[in-house]
Amino acid sequence: MSANLFWIKGCSHAYYIHCIAKYAISKLDNNMTRIDCPVSGYDGVLETEYCRLILSPEVFNHWGITLCRAGILEDKRFYCPHKDCLALLIRDQGTMVVMEWECPNCRRLFCAQYNVSWHARMECHEAREDIMLMQLAKKQNWRICPRYNFYVEKIDGCAFMTCRCGVEFCYRCGARSETLHYSSKCQG
């Protein structure tokens, strides 16, 4: 037989190595942890360690992580809220509610109750609402009034804005307007 063939463990089917590697990747992309023989009705299965030599280190590691995640109950799983970290964490089912917690991966603090960045001097529900509002404002491309921090939405027209408080500013950069139509500070 050809050295380019990969035999499925537990059945008599063999496939080209590059084909079975792509098959495994497609299953892992769908977060499947058990990868059966491509022909349904057979007991053949691709096992992680058996496939190590045909998969790239990145795909092999991804499979290991997927298996680990599958072993953790969904209600115990959560992730670091910092977008540049997102480490998988496990929630302890103890009776005590932990508020301030340090991510073991990035070492930054976050509120474990609401899974948001740490919010010193603010109640948890206020911090969660504040973060949700900031996310909505960013998504909707809202700007903040430079005087009273009101959110302002531009529907149409030029970048010149007049807030309900009366301050005039550039919608592109947020600087107070120095002329009637544009801020000379605007870089946008």
Automatic annotation (TrEMBL):
Domain RING-type stretches: 1-188
GO molecular function: ubiquitin protein ligase activity; zinc ion binding
The protein's Enzyme Commission number: 2.3.2.31
Keywords attached to this entry: Metal-binding, Repeat, Transferase, Ubl conjugation pathway, Zinc, Zinc-finger
Cofactor: Zn(2+)
Pfam families assigned to the protein according to its UniProt record, in alphabetical order: IBR (PF01485)
Catalysed reactions, semicolon-separated: [E2 ubiquitin-conjugating enzyme]-S-ubiquitinyl-L-cysteine + [acceptor protein]-L-lysine = [E2 ubiquitin-conjugating enzyme]-L-cysteine + [acceptor protein]-N(6)-ubiquitinyl-L-lysine
Pathways involved: Protein modification; protein ubiquitination
SMART domains from the UniProt entry: IBR
InterPro entries in the record: E3_UB_ligase_RBR, IBR_dom, TRIAD_supradom, Znf_C2H2_type, Znf_RING/FYVE/PHD
Keyword Protein biosynthesis: no
Protein name: RBR-type E3 ubiquitin transferase
